[in-house]
């Protein structure tokens, strides 16, 4: 690749950063890193009614959590209005844009008439200047009608591009009309601002969702009008949508939640990235790979043409693999945060790290881990069924003897193992008969890793207190 690779992600702050955008952000980021290029974050905030600061903050937090660092930005479109206005004026002067004073009522009537004739509803270009054409009279300034500015789309020809994902695409200019590029309030529309920005920011590659394929012909035409026929167009890669488990498009109503919701649900960012990467891209049969490997491999090829299906079970599996390898001190901090959210205080220390090491193999998320470790920091409530099953009269004397030994023994795994062993020998019992009620009373549950290892991580006082009323 000779020219500098420059990619961008351009979310609209009208909601949270959703999974599809996070995936194209990852592809754009990895592609820039692969080529030693630059990655830009642009906030497309021209939808004034729907854009919010809260959403901007959430987008930034999601990017930070995922670790997708950008080299430039965030650049806000609403801070670039002067630039868009200047381009509009140049285009009007060059004849590639024009003012249109149609009122909404006129446009409705135009579409109504087209429908009645069985035609496609396209703007009829009544305000588009042409040699010898008489334009409608400009409304009196006192009338309050403000013009929009429209792009003078080429009336003939075919717009073609070779999509990095979909392959060659061609759309006839007959299919598209003269798009509004500037609203009456002076705010540009998406298809115009995006082109000015991609041109000004020298974007070389655009990865985005395939809902934008229909916008791309306008964007290419506007690009040529602004940058000139010979200017190098960005290369476009339109990634298919992500389908929900039900095979329908992921939406806010159907399972799509923010990236930050996955953070709260106990997923690790590297697992999220690994899973998102595979959802629409492959490198052979590799399922688990580091971000460095992805950067090494991601050259824009092997992007899937057909929609991928969101698979929560697979994501949980990927997360479990990363959890197993994760540093225990790091997990301790994450679990402490989860517990704090439940009002349970736990210090981030070596003991909590040791608990994470003991339990992480059986967890998919740090929420699962917190579910396990909560027993160390908050009271447990064994179920009546477990108590009646495991706490029989036959075993009570042995439990009392064990409690006495636990009050005296060295408080570590070998010391506790010895106390158990001695009690079993003394009462001629097999391990499960003693271990099960011990688990129920101390841990509030019947299944745990090796009981001596589990007990050793409690403080002695807690264990003795839970064995008080046998
Ligand atoms: N603001 C657009 C969106 O969020 C950006 C599309 C693009 O990348 O061009 O869908």
Task: Give an overview in words.
It is a single chain. With 470 residues, this protein is mostly helical. It has 4 domains: 120 residues, Rossmann fold, CATH 3.40.50; 101 residues, Glutamyl-tRNA Synthetase, domain 3 (Alpha-Beta Complex), CATH 3.90.800; 48 residues, no CATH class; 83 residues, Orthogonal Bundle (Arc Repressor Mutant, subunit A). Helices cover 45% and strands 11% of the residues. It contains 19 helices and 12 strands. The strands form 5 sheets. It has a 3-stranded parallel beta sheet with strand order 1-2-3, with helices on one face. It is elongated. The protein starts with 5 loop residues before the first strand and ends with a helix. Bound molecules: glutamic acid.
Low-confidence stretches: none
Indicate the CATH class of the largest domain: Alpha Beta
Structural class: mainly alpha
Count of helical stretches: 19
Specify the CATH architecture of the largest domain.
3-Layer(aba) Sandwich
Strand order of the largest sheet: 1-2-3
Task: Give the total of domains.
Answer: 4
Taking the alpha carbons of the first and last residues, their distance comes to: 74 Å
Identify the overall geometry.
Answer: elongated
CATH names the topology of the largest domain as Rossmann fold
Strand content: 5-15%
Please tally the β strands and state the result. 12
Identify the CATH homologous superfamily of the largest domain: HUPs
- Helical proportion? 40-55%
Q: Give every kind of bound small molecule, once each.
A: glutamic acid
Q: Nearest-angstrom radius of gyration?
A: 32 Å
Largest sheet: 3 strands, parallel
Q: Tell me, rounded to a whole number, the average pLDDT.
A: 95
